[in-house]
Amino acid sequence: MTEQAIEHEGQGGVIVPIRPGLEPVHPTPAPPRVRSLRTVRERSQIPLRRLVRVRPRREQVHALARHTGYGVLGVARAGGAYWRWVTASEYATNPKATPDLIEQVRLRRRRTSYALLPILTAAAVAGWTWSWPLLVLLILGGLAGVSAVEQAVRRGTLDKDPGHETLGQHPAGKAVRRAVANAGLGKLDDVRVIGPVVRDGAAWTAVVELPPGVPAVKAMRRQVELAAAAGVDLAQLVVDPVPGHAGRITLWVADDDPLAGEAIVSPLLGRMPPFDAWREKIPVGVDVRGRPISFALPERSLLTGGEPGAGKSVAANNLLCAVALDPHVRLWPIDGKGGSDLLDYEPIAERFVGEPDVAAVLELLANLQDEMADRYRKLKAVGERKVTGEIAEELGIRLLVLHIDELQAFTCDEQHGKRLVAMLWDLVSRGRASGIVVSGATQRPSADVVPTRLRDILSIRWALRCTTPQASDTILGQGRATSGYNAATLDPTQRGAGFLLAEGSMPVPMRAYFLGDNDVTALTRRAYRLREAAGTLPASDARPGVRLLKALLTAFGERDRMWTTDLLAELAPQPGYADWDPSRLSAELRPLGVAPAQLAIEGVNRNGYRRGDVLRALERA
Ligand SMILES: Nc1ncnc2c1ncn2[C@@H]1O[C@H](COP(=O)(O)OP(=O)(O)OP(=O)(O)O)[C@@H](O)[C@H]1O
Q1: Structural domain that includes position 314
Q2: Does the complex come out with an ipTM higher than 0.85?
Q3: In a domain, 265, yes or no
Q4: CB contact set of 609 (below 8 Å; sequence gap of 6+)
Q5: Residues 37, 77 within the same domain
Q6: Whose CA is closest to atom 6 on ligand 1?
Q7: Pocket, ligand 1, Cβ cutoff 6 A
Q8: Average of pLDDT values for 161-182?
Q9: What range(s) does the FtsK domain occupy (predicted)?
Q10: Final residue in a domain of this structure, among 100, 126, 159
Q11: Which residue, 98, 262, 293, 368, has fewest beta-carbon neighbours within 10 Å?
């Protein structure tokens, strides 16, 4: 019976005897000291060749080749670093470095190099004459060290791959050419950079000549690819055509996202003269270069969308405040949220719906359709097809702006939603030539809120930050998000940032001017005064004067004259007039053309008011 000894895994190299046909017999574990002695004895019988691994010749050759290769690469890397140091290349990307400063640094470093050269040469000659094998050994040792460093650097670089290098803040012309070529605009050798790449504020800019036959418009369509090639966000890059050369573009690339940062003040705030919505463009914000963005309003319609808090109300204020400052524009705002966002406009609005009241909106839209029909009748009578500023003056037609905030409150109504969308479609498609502008905003841009057939005829689209690319496409149009114009990629902290598709065929990344609550209050007050002066204030209950006159009529009841004290007693129960006294009443009524007079009632003469005066004042309003 033969006894086999095998090394049993997990037993720490303990010999386990087994007999054929029998289960392995585990020996009683030896005390630790005895076992370690046995292990040492076993190991001592292994030949030295197996303990100290001597590599076969082929492996030795490979190792030598590897070390030599990496050694040479390491020396090349060090040479490159040295060359960059001597040429002061790090200063080239520093916007504050002047050419003089760069030249000085280069000179100093060249002198240092010249001083080191004889010292190194003398050391090498001395080493060679003293003991050349030692020098060779030192060189080989140095090479092995460089090889080890090079391999470590490469391992580190490969482990955390930083991706392609971005162009930086002041790229060389060649890097710009490469980016343009990488964006699919031609071969590197065919792209030229005209003049130097220069710093422009917090950005760099370069004039690029595209390969022969490639038009600038192609580069403008490939802005997303250019941004990707430059390693920046789309919002950081602007491509402009160069006047006089259809094959040249100006590339402008910002260091940081220009849509972030401080709010931008609207030019409307400092403006005193009235606005002319027929002839002037509506100022709505700035592009990424800080250049003003505006659009013409006549014959247009607008759709604004974005997630809650993206800045839709502020965006809408840019439109509404501008047209409010034109005393001849008729304002019809509707607030589907039922909040206070549009309340400031109420006193100057001809029609106003401040609640998500579908029936009221249906009635308003029906009235607007009648108004549209009336306008077309007037136009037909003078043989015109559409209203212009001049024809509007001639026919007494005023630009009319219908703005619906939170469209979804109406278009998604189960009972009337479809009818409402159809009416809106009619007003957008036919209303534009008759001076009717439709604007809608929604925080839920989706096909059920803005059906595609309605979206497609709204000519201006303004996408603020959206939650999904689909929502962004609902506003900007199908496929825009995949082409890079995706409002879902905007930073949520960049309030007011968005894409505006208004003039031109491409959406423009931009940021809306900030018009907050206080600004809107100030501007609508100015608009009120402008309208008052122009005699275009609507006779709406929202106007304090109209409200007072109506309240007085209620107080008069059937009486045609009343003493002031009695009138005030009747007025007091109505909201807002509880603490009024005779002097306050006369001060408020005087601008409306109503003055108190001595009135004899039942034989007693006292100060009072006549109902007829109040009625006439109301008619004037
Ligand atoms: N253009 C802007 N510049 C700077 N800040 C802005 C801008 N637009 C909006 N904001 C900031 O974002 C806040 C929310 O804006 P806004 O009320 O317009 O959002 P919204 O999209 O209308 O929200 P909701 O859908 O809830 O009504 C504002 O109070 C303001 O602080």
Answers
A1: 278-521
A2: yes
A3: no
A4: 552, 561, 562, 564, 567, 589, 594, 596, 597, 599
A5: no
A6: 495
A7: 263, 306, 308-314, 443, 495-496, 511-512, 514
A8: 83
A9: 290-473
A10: 159
A11: 262
